Amino acid sequence: MIKNNAYIVSVILTLTLTCSGCTPTARERGVILTVATYNVHHLRSSYLAVRDAIAAMNADIVALQEMPVRGKIQYSEKLARDLGYRNISGKPYYRQGPGNGWVLTFLSKHPVISKEEKKLRGSRRALRIDIAVNNKPLTIITTHLSPFVWSRDPIRENRSRSSLRKTQIGELIRWSRESSGRTIIMGDMNSIYLMGELTPFPQNKFTDVFDINSTDCPGTFPLRPSMLQRVRKIVPFTPELITLDYIFVSPGIDVISAGVNKSSASDHYPVTAKLILQ
Description:
Blueprint: H1 2-19, H2 26-29, E1 31-39, H3 47-57, E2 61-70, E3 73-74, H4 75-83, E4 86-89, E5 94-95, E6 100-108, E7 112-119, E8 125-133, E9 136-144, H5 154-176, E10 183-188, H6 200-203, E11 207-208, E12 221-222, H7 225-234, E13 241-242, E14 245-249, E15 253-260, E16 271-277
Parallel strand pairs: 1-2, 9-10
Antiparallel strand pairs: 1-16, 2-3, 2-6, 4-6, 5-6, 7-8, 8-9, 10-14, 11-14, 12-13, 15-16
Helix pairs in contact: 3-4
């Protein structure tokens, strides 16, 4: 009897040890992907500084806002070439004279199945790509929503801008419903949570990547002293660092980690997230 019990125990231990790595966990079954969003401030500091900041992220997909087009110079193509990415760019959504302006750009290490662009209210745009990562389809949308304005009547003007951004976010949400599955929406939303403009994202089951650990984003936009002084005349307790840039993920995407890289290459800090596609 003792021998039989010993045999049974040895069999159980053998099966347990042998198969402990056989059944993959949820994370092992999924595909890991690192994404980032970055407003590059039309490369105002320097091309090399922005290039190095993007390289340091080591992301699979990077969404860029305020990517400049200057005449025949396509900086997004140069970045893609220098860093080993595919370049997917839209049409100018902000013009700075003939032949000059800003475009939305994706840098992708994965082949792109399709690309589409949408005009939003107020002359803004959104850019969408569809990719497949290990046969798992994924839709990614980026945008740069209408900014704050500083006029003689900033309260009235920014109420109008707030209403405009709410409309733009509604357009984004409706457009995302055309996706057949997992979706990421990321970019410069020019909004903070206290304004109430971002509520359609959680209402439509999109999760802020920083919510995974119930922590707030440490901030993506440091306010210059002159700007901070103006803002505090309207909102006295405004912090020196606010969040304007976000990554939202749909069901079917888990978040491993999220972070902000405090690079001085732009007036915005890039946001990164390590994700699992289930």
